[in-house]
Amino acid sequence: MRPSVKELLGVDAAGQEVIVKGWVRTKRQTKSAAFVEVNDGSCMANIQCVFDAETAGKPEIASTLEKVSTGASVSVEGTLVPSPAAGQKAELRATGLQVIGEAPPDAYPLQKKAHSLEFLREIAHLRPRTNTFGAVARVRNRMAFAVHQFFQERGFSYIHTPIITASDAEGAGAMFQVTTLDLEKVASSGAVDYGYDFFGKPAFLTVSGQLNVETYCQALGRVYTFGPTFRAENSNTTRHLSEFWMIEPEVAFAGIEDNIDLARDFIHYLVQTALRDCAEDLAFFDARIQPGLIESLKSVASGSFSRMTYTEAVAELEKHKGVFEFKPYWGCDLQSEHEKFLTEKVVGGPLVVTDYPKDIKAFYMKQNDDEKTVAAMDVLVPRFGEIIGGSEREWRLPLLQKRIADMGLNLDSYWWYLDLRRFGSTPHAGFGLGFERLLLYVTGMTNIRDVIPFPRAPKLADF
Ligand code: 4AD
Ligand code: MG
Question: Which of 175, 212, 244, 360 to mutate to test the pocket of ligand 1 (most atoms within 8 A of CB)?
């Protein structure tokens, strides 16, 4: 394969004959030379293609240079030479040029050096060609691979859990329904008969792969799933998507402390990988998006995570009641403002909060002996709060049955999940890391819609 710009910039430039293909970022022409900066997405850096006066003056090259504008795709032939300019190792002394696809300047939207992130959201099909979104895409790719590396190195099996499901994994009811019924006919008939629906009963897009992955946990021991999940909550925030990717490990014969250790090691591994392998992109985020990003990532790359129980966290928040829009009290769901306060002002870094009240957590969490709290663990980080939610699971059949019934959920639809507690039940634990929240954390981007290629949110499903 033809070497990428990243590969070309990584070798010692010694007059190698090469062909570069990519998209033009800028063109500059002076009397003595023409400069075309080409980016091929392999890295943040462009390769500078220099046409000296003699080359640029050749009729076929001069007429081709006229068609070169920002966004055009080109093929440039030349020799790789050390660059006299500071900040780049090599440049291309160009001898040939072809425009493959023009990008007429009066119509191509990405002309300015810096466009607002809001504007770029409206052209999600073109934004990967900007520095910011190219960098996000490369970091996202590296982090996805690191997720698999981390678990594979530790003997976990990757399980593909279903996307269409009949059970509500979080028991919270915020699900998208999947149907082949003709809704207009249903409306005119005045009644729904699910017997005629594709699956013969109501079906939904999954909110979490956890319940399914638990079945394989109870056979393979250490498992994880990593896939898209869907939530139909009407949350129009910078932290919520309707479609997001989640990583969910599950470990048999494990308790809450094992779970916390795994979550911490996982975050350490991901942050260390980003610092090591995405250095150029992180330097960009540090300079343009989130000053201090690299310093703060370095401090979490191997540091300990602070710990608090929910009860301690609320006691801490109650000392500062006045600063919150939503007054904290024991039993309340921690708001993002509370989570930010705890991580930014109280502990100054990642914080693991454990033992939440059972009434604000999902039915599957293991009940503590106090009968008020569950063995839950959320990992909170500065800037946006919750990044991981997890728990030890209720593995005692009668307690789980009672909890499902008390929460008004349909016991029958969880029959197979309950079977796991009937046959060879084990204490086990797991968690979910929101992949886009991780990317917010690692890139310093502030809106979750900017770390997924095509965001889905209420009233937003374009592209
Ligand atoms: O805390 P949650 O709801 O936990 C679960 O789904 C469990 N089944 C996980 C498990 O124990 N296996 O979600 C887990 C994480 C959150 O901490 C957050 O990072 C992310 O998923 N998340 C979202 N990310 C983007 N948009 C949303 N609407 C999200 N909801 C949750
Ligand atoms: Mg949660």
Answer: 244
Closest-lying ligand 1 atom to the alpha carbon of residue 172: 3
For the chain, the average pLDDT equals 96
pLDDT at 30: 94
Task: Tell me if residue 158 falls in helix, strand or coil.
Answer: strand
pTM of the model: 0.97
Of all protein residues, whose CA lies closest to atom 18 belonging to ligand 1?
A: 434
Each residue's pLDDT tens digit, 176-234: 999 999 999 999 998 999 999 999 999 999 999 999 999 999 999 999 999 999 999 99
pLDDT tens-digit series, residues 129-141:
999 999 999 999 9
Ligand 2 centroid to residue 241 C-alpha, Å: 14
Residues with CB under 5 A from ligand 2 (ion): 389
- Would the pLDDT of 103 be above 80? yes
Rounded to whole angstroms, the Cα distance separating 455 from 453 reads 6
Binding-site residues, ligand 1, Cβ < 6 A:
169-170, 208, 210, 231, 240-241, 244, 246, 248, 386-390, 430-432, 434, 436-437, 448
The residue contributing the CA closest to ligand 1 atom 14 is: 432
Q: Which CATH superfamily is domain 127-450 in?
A: Bira Bifunctional Protein; Domain 2 (3.30.930.10)
pLDDT in tens, 360-410: 999 999 999 999 999 999 999 999 999 999 999 999 999 999 999 999 999
pLDDT recorded at residue 138 = 98
What kind of fold does domain 5-101 have according to CATH?
OB fold (Dihydrolipoamide Acetyltransferase, E2P) (2.40.50)
Q: What is the domain partition of the chain in residue ranges?
A: 5-101, 127-450
Q: Which helix (H) or strand (E) holds 135?
A: helix 131-153
Q: Alpha-carbon torsion 259, 264, 265, 271, what sign?
A: positive
Element (H, E) at 380: strand 376-381
- Burial (CB count within 10 angstroms: exposed 0-12, middle 13-18, buried 19+), residue 117: middle
